[in-house]
Amino acid sequence: MNLILLGAPGAGKGTQAEKICEKLSIPAISTGNMLREAMANGTEMGLKAKSFIDAGKLVPDEVVIGIIRERLQAADCKNGFILDGFPRTIPQAEALDEMGVRIDRVIDIEVSNEKIAARLSGRRVCLKCGATYHVEYKAPKTEGVCDACGDTLVQRKDDMPETVLDRLKTYHEQTEPLKDYYAAKGILRVVEGQEAVADTTARTMQALED
Ligand code: ADP
Ligand code: ZN
């Protein structure tokens, strides 16, 4: 199954991507994580992406399209994949179509703007393995330390309140039109994000079937 997860920053796309990855044994592909990894490694692409990411803006289409084109050719994508954070613009969606990539389902996770602000301000991430935590809702066993790999957790620069507003604006302007794009193809399903992750997961799994 080839899936796309849509939703505002902090709607919980990454968490659901991990759950679906476990259940269906298909890779979760996060452009955000790939870009952050490139930034941490100081690659040319990482340096180019940094100014956009830190400002809450989108990285140019040709950069992320290039990343995805290459990633989808890997052997582990043969039986399907979950795209988390791609596409984020209409040209990115059109690029997928032009690559001949068939998408089976697009799950849109809806969460109110107020909840999103609270979720992002408490979010902590591991730059080494990409795991995400929340100081209140999903605390690591030891404060500030990644359960999965033991690395130090950090707050993303773009999770600071002043940048969050820019990211929400970017989302509404550039990414939300994708809902209509995929609804017109009959493959969009809307899931209301719930308080408990397990409840959202149950609804997401249901949406994959109908
Ligand atoms: P979130 O979904 O919480 O906003 P991500 O980790 O998916 O976070 O993305 C972080 C940042 O990386 C985005 O704000 C954007 O700058 C950049 N980015 C990720 N995916 C894309 C994409 N498909 N197109 C353009 N920029 C992207
Ligand atoms: Zn880690």
UniProtKB/TrEMBL annotation:
Q: Where is this region: LID?
A: 122-159
Which sites bind AMP?
T31, R36, K57, L58, V59, G85, F86, P87, R88, Q92, R156, R167
EC code = 2.7.4.3
| Molecular-function annotations in GO | AMP kinase activity; ATP binding; zinc ion binding
Q: Which reaction does it catalyse?
A: AMP + ATP = 2 ADP
Q: What InterPro entries does the record tag this protein with?
A: Adenyl_kin_sub, Adenylat/UMP-CMP_kin, Adenylat_kinase_CS, Adenylate_kinase_lid-dom, P-loop_NTPase
Q: Which residues form the Adenylate kinase active site lid domain?
A: 123-158
Identify the enzyme class. transferase
Where do the segments described as NMP lie?
A: 30-59
**GO:BP terms for this protein?**
AMP salvage
Just give the chief location class: cytoplasm
The entry's ATP-binding residues are: G10, A11, G12, K13, G14, T15, R123, T132, Y133, E195
Which parts of the sequence bind Zn(2+)? Answer: C126, C129, C146, C149
Q: Which GO terms describe its cellular component?
A: cytoplasm
- Keywords associated with the record: ATP-binding, Cytoplasm, Kinase, Metal-binding, Nucleotide biosynthesis, Nucleotide-binding, Transferase, Zinc
Q: Which Pfam families match?
A: ADK, ADK_lid
Q: In which pathway does it act?
A: Purine metabolism; AMP biosynthesis via salvage pathway; AMP from ADP: step 1/1
Subcellular compartments: Cytoplasm
Q: What is known of its domains?
A: Consists of three domains, a large central CORE domain and two small peripheral domains, NMPbind and LID, which undergo movements during catalysis. The LID domain closes over the site of phosphoryl transfer upon ATP binding. Assembling and dissambling the active center during each catalytic cycle provides an effective means to prevent ATP hydrolysis. Some bacteria have evolved a zinc-coordinating structure that stabilizes the LID domain.
NCBIfam families assigned: adk, PRK00279.1-1, PRK00279.1-2, PRK00279.1-3, PRK14527.1
Subunit composition? Monomer.
Annotated function: Catalyzes the reversible transfer of the terminal phosphate group between ATP and AMP. Plays an important role in cellular energy homeostasis and in adenine nucleotide metabolism.
Which family is annotated? Belongs to the adenylate kinase family.
Protein name per the record: Adenylate kinase
